[in-house]
Amino acid sequence: MSQASLRELASTQTGRIVLGLFGGVTVGALTVIVGQISGLLPLGEPRTLPAPCRPASVHALVPGGTVVRNDGGRTSAECGAMAEPPRPARLEVMVEKAWSSGRAEADHRRGCASLAGLGPVGRPPGLGDVACAATDRGVLPETTVLVRRGALRVTVRYASAAKDAASVERDAVAAARRVTASL
Amino acid sequence: MGSFLRVGSVAGATAVGLVLGGGAVYAVSGGSAEEDDPVRAVRSPCNLAARELLDDVVPDPVVLSSSRLAEPGSEWWTGADCALAPKGASERALTLRLERVGPRSEDVEPGKKRKIVVRPGTEEARSRFDAALSERSRPCALQVVPGLGDQAAACEGTDYDDETPAYRLLVRRGDLLLNAVGTGEAARRREPLRRLAVSVLEAAR
Questions:
Q1: Among residues 96-125 of chain B, which lie with CB inside 8 Å of chain A?
Q2: Does the keyword Transmembrane apply (chain A) (predicted)?
Q3: What is the pTM of this model?
Q4: Which segments within A2-100 are labelled E, that is strand?
Q5: Is B72 near chain A, with CB under 8 Å?
Q6: In chain A, what is the straight-line distance between the N-terminal and C-terminal CA atoms, in Å?
C-alpha cells in the first residue's frame, strides 16, 4: 500500500477505524510473540527461573561430584552434576516454561506415558496430582520425576550406585519437591 | 462530543485488534499439534544386563558413567547409555547404548497435497541399522553377522588412541538397537559380548 493511499484512508472516519483495527492486530500479535520469547508470558508464572542446583541440594545427593551445569533463565533452567566411582551418581534437574499451561499439560502427559518403559509409573507423594515418577532398578538405580505446575514443567532425574532403589526414589522425589517449592 | 466519539471509535477498534491479534497468536502457539504417540523410555542397558553374563565380559564390573539420550516423550526416539570398567580400573572396558525408535509421521509427497504416513518404529530402526552399516565411523566398518537378533553387524578395530583393540557390535531387535563396544581385554571376549547383547535386548522388550 502506497503512502498516498494510506493518507487517503486515514482521512475518513471508517478508514481510521480500519487502520486502528489492523494496527491493533499487528501490535497485539507481536506483543504476544515477544512476551513468549522473552519469558514474560504466560502471566502469573515467575519471570525468571532460578538456577536449580541449590534448591535440589546437589552436594548432598551427589557427594564429591562435579557440577556440570547450573543455569537459570527466563524460559528454562538446568542443573547437572555427576560423581565418578567409587560412588557413581548423577543428578539432572530441568525446569521449562511452556507457552501456555495447556501446552505444558500435553507435554507432561506424554512424558508420563513414556516413563512406563522404565517401570511402574507412580504418583509421588507431596507433589499434588500433576506429578509422576518411575524407577529403573538394577546396578544403577535411577528415578525420573516429572512435575507440572501451571505452565512450568520440572524434570528431576537421579541415579546413584551407592544406594538402593527405594532410597534413590525417595531422594529424587524430595529434590523435586524442593525445586518445585523454590519456583 | 463528536470528536470524542471519533477518537473513541478508533481507540475501540485498536483495542479490539490488540485482543484479536494477541489471542490468535496465543491460541496458535498453545494449541497442541497432531503428534505421534510418545515412545516408551528404555531402561539403562547396565540395569538390563544380567550380572553373570556381564561378568563374562567385564569381571567385577563397576558403572563408570551413564546418561539418558532424550527427554521422556519429547523426541520420536529415546535411549540410554552406560560405560563399565572392571573394579579398580578407570579405563572403560564396555560401553552399551540402547535406543528405541518410535513411530514417526512423515509427508510422503513433499510439495504436493499433504499425505501423512506413519512409519512404524521397527521400520525406522531398520533404516538406522542400514545407515550404520554404510558409515565409516570408529572403531571400524561394520560387517553383517547372521543369527543375532533380527539384524546384527560387528567389526574389530582400535579405540580412539589407535592402540587399544576395540570390538563393536550392533544388534537390532524390533524397534530396539543396541550398540556395544568392548575395549582392551573385553574386545577379545566376543562370544560372551554377543550373548550379553542378545540378553539385554530380550530384557528390554
A1: 100
A2: yes
A3: 0.85
A4: 66-71, 76-83, 89-97
A5: yes
A6: 48
